[in-house]
Design a protein that fits this description.
By secondary structure, the protein is an alpha+beta fold. The protein has seven helices and eight strands.
């Protein structure tokens, strides 16, 4: 009987460990965001018939707050699930060197100061090159709003749902945020 219990216990422990590791893998997969580049998001918009809005995370490699937002906000399972459902998620390097064509205009890197900037980032941020800044575009790729600064999951989701659930169409931000 003792041998059976030992064998049973080892099998049970092994099974529980296996089950726990599978849950961790599935949780990580469901909470990760599939980031696109700008051109991929535009192509998906056209291909899928403007089903989703576009969310753009404008960052730089040297930005500590950008990295913190990646880790603390975008890795949050609730944030990731909501954003995947309502938006095409784009990462845009504010100092990226590759040209991007959008609405028949080519946006390029502009050398300036120590690092320079990408013209599309400057356009989306309305000339205010502050990182991180996230930008919301509607289904027709019209600007809804840039939102500068680091955001934790709760205020981030409040803003994202304002745009993602089309609340902005009937309610002012001031009324919604009360």
């Amino acid at each position: 009987m003792h041998k059976f219990l030992t064998n049973f216990s080892n099998k049970t422990i092994y099974f529980l460990l296996l089950l726990g590791s599978m849950q961790t893998v599935f949780a990580q997969e469901s909470s990760s965001i599939d980031w696109l580049n700008f051109e991929q998001a535009v192509a998906l918009q056209k291909k899928e018939g403007n089903l989703k809005k576009i969310f753009i995370d404008v960052y730089t490699d040297w930005c500590g707050w950008c990295k913190k937002m990646d880790k603390n906000t975008f890795q949050n399972p609730e944030v990731a699930a909501y954003m995947k459902q309502h938006f095409y998620m784009v990462k845009l390097d504010g100092e990226g060197k590759e040209p991007i064509v959008f609405r028949d205009q080519t946006f390029s890197f502009v050398p300036s100061g120590r690092n320079g900037y990408h013209e599309l980032a400057a356009n989306l941020l309305q000339g205010q090159l502050s990182y991180p800044t996230v930008v919301y575009l509607d289904e027709n790729m019209n600007m809804l709003s840039p939102v500068p600064g680091y955001l934790t999951p709760e205020p981030f989701l409040k803003i994202a749902s304002f745009f993602g659930n089309n609340i902005y169409k009937t309610t002012s931000w001031e009324d919604y945020s009360k």
